[in-house]
Amino acid sequence: MNKKDLILASATKVFAEKGFLNASITEIASAAGVGDATIYSFFRNKEDLLFEIPYNAFVSFLNGALSHLKGLKSPEEKLRKYIWHHIAYYENNKDYTKIYITELSRNSRFYKTKSYQLLKKYSQIVIDILQEGMQAGLFKTNINPYLIRNFIFGSIDNLALSWVLLNKPQSIIEQSDGLTNIVLEAILVDK
User: Of 79, 102, 163, 187, which shows the fewest CB atoms inside 10 Å?
Assistant: First the structure.
């Protein structure tokens, strides 16, 4: 692992344990086994470091989602897999999830970063799936894909918030089918 990736991994752990405000560059440097100056050779300040953490996660999110969706034909199957993938990523990356839910998504400056630009590409996938289902006549045409996307992300983030802060439920991946079923019940054309 190169120094920058080591610093990012250490920062993820420290921020998840202590929170952004309570964490220090010195603690992150110590966890990474580098000096403070090394961190400043890669990042302007602590917030710059925080905003870099999700970049690799969103690359992984995007690539993973595209990989999981390959070969699936039905928009219904794609939506189910997309929701599962999102929740599974959160569950398998608890420190990152805690930082995203408690620090990044609530910071208005995050929405001006290159990391956020990748998140927008990732979130466009679900819009495309919903529009594909509408065009195929499987999903209701009077739904607002952006509202449904926000419902999906908001629901997942709410599950994750309870999970990272209260450890309830113990596993959020078990909630995937239930959430997907609620979404599909709302958007599938009545037969």
Answer: 102
CATH number of domain containing 81: 1.10.357.10
Q: What is the DSSP letter of 29?
A: H
Give the pLDDT of residue 168: 86
With a threshold of 0.90, does the pTM exceed it?
Answer: yes
Q: Inform me whether the pLDDT recorded for 107 exceeds 90.
A: yes
What is the distance, to the nearest Å, from the Cα of residue 144 to the centroid of all Cα atoms in its chain? 22
Minimal CA–CA distance to 179: which of 72, 59, 66, 84?
A: 84
Measure Cα distances from 169 to 82, 85, 143, 173, 174 in Å: 21, 18, 30, 9, 9
Q: Which SS3 state, helix, strand or coil, does residue 20 take?
A: coil
CATH of the domain at 23: 1.10.10.60
